[in-house]
Amino acid sequence: MGRPQTLSKIRVRLLLGFVTAFVFMVLFGAFSYVYFARIEQRLVFLSHADSMLNTVLEFRRYEKNYFLYHHEKDYQQALAYLGEFDGLLKSQAEHLSAGLGQAGYRLLLANAGRYEEALGAAHRMLGGALAGGDSSGELAAAIDGLRSAGQQIIHGCEVLARQERHEIQRLLRQYRPVMIAFLLCLAALGAVAAHGLIQRLVRPLKVIEDAAQDVGRGQFRVIAWNDRRDEIGDVIAAFNHMVRHLRQNNEQMIQTEKLTSLGTLTSGVAHELNNPLNNISTSTQILLEELDSPDLQEYHRELLAAIEQQVAKAKDIVGSLLEFARQREFEPSRHDLRAVIDETLKLIKGEIPAQVQVEVDAPAGIVMDMDKAHIVQALINLIINAIQAMDGAGRLSILARLAEGETVRLELTDSGSGIAPEVLPRIFDPFFTTKEVGRGTGLGLSITYGIIERHRGHIQAESRPGQGARFIITLPLRAGEA
């Protein structure tokens, strides 16, 4: 049966979050539009109020100039601005009535009419006085009425402009907490979205990244999964499925390489067992021939001791071979590196030609955490590759030293034909080999690479064609160290 259909999709949640934010912003935008439309309307009304006040100031200025210099053009300019003011009063009647009230608006109209009548009367009286008439008393009274009406008009316009400014300030004060509330809600929504992204995407992706790096180091561990039914859950399930297959395939590859190595070692093991068995046979025959002589009992004991020694040697060789071939889990423990190298060389002694000189420069006492069987397997793969590269004659050097950072540096250098530059980057790839068909599976160096990585170590190769090859292995002294 397949997995249940995914119910909670991250993309649905993201879409829902974006839709929520969009709706929220649309509502706020509509609210802001209404507010700003009102503020814009008030600004227009304020502009009209300022225009009315400026118009009043203009006809008052020309009024004063007329009474001071008695120029007819000043009187005409005053009348023109007064007419403009009357036009503004009529065009903005609705707004003026709302701002000043009906009584205030009617008073402003009355003052404007009174001012116009007073200005005309004063103009007529001033004309008569200039012609020689005696109307100074009536002229003074007309001018006083004129100025009183003008002051009332200015006061009304100033009140109107002040009211518009106050209304704009009031709208801005009302909008400020709304804007702050929106920003807080937006920040809270962003925080919730960020938290959701971290919980649903960032942290799981970090877990997957770490697990992928572990796979690259040869640690095939699955990710603990709570069966969360979303895209991340699907990815984790697919990743775990892949890791299980990789682990199974890796174990099969290791076992296949072991079996291949065992086939290579068969002739060497036969050679190693042949000599002690021949000695056992010869010693036994001599012992049988001399059993009747009473003078050779001590000699018989020596022969028996030789038999025991050779049998022990044969058992040791067979035991090492069985230990190498046995399938087992990765279990690091404390081992002396020099002893492991010696045991490896003993296992493949029959595979090393007489013309190949092996030099080991590894001091005893370098004790480190390792899975002995896996390290032996890695060393066998490297040594056999070196022997095959030297084609029956040459020198193999094995060097081990303590390095910085609680690590061990192990170098295997041969005097073989070397590795071509175009081949060197691919030598650790699975199934890659330059050998003839039937002489290699292409898995030896790949498995070696995986073993070293599983020990949290590092392996690299250096070579020049015709100058041999060098494999440099860096391993931590203790398990878990980088």
UniProtKB/TrEMBL annotation:
SUPFAM superfamilies recorded: ATPase domain of HSP90 chaperone/DNA topoisomerase II/histidine kinase (SSF55874), HAMP domain-like (SSF158472), Homodimeric domain of signal transducing histidine kinase (SSF47384)
The entry's keywords: ATP-binding, Kinase, Membrane, Nucleotide-binding, Phosphoprotein, Transferase, Transmembrane, Transmembrane helix, Two-component regulatory system
Family matches, as Pfam families: HAMP, HATPase_c, HisKA
Gene3D superfamilies in the cross-refs: 1.10.287.130, 6.10.340.10, Histidine kinase-like ATPase, C-terminal domain (3.30.565.10)
Cell compartment(s), UniProt: Membrane
Principal subcellular localization: membrane
Lineage: superkingdom: Bacteria
Catalytic activity: ATP + protein L-histidine = ADP + protein N-phospho-L-histidine
Entry GO MF terms: ATP binding; phosphorelay sensor kinase activity
HAMP domain: residues covered: 199-251
Record EC number: 2.7.13.3
Domain Histidine kinase positions: 268-479
Transmembrane annotation, as ranges: 12-36, 178-198
GO cellular component: membrane
Main EC class the enzyme belongs to: transferase
PANTHER family, A to Z: C4-DICARBOXYLATE TRANSPORT SENSOR PROTEIN DCTB, SENSOR HISTIDINE KINASE
Name of this chain's protein: histidine kinase
Lineage: Bacteria, Pseudomonadati, Thermodesulfobacteriota, Desulfarculia, Desulfarculales
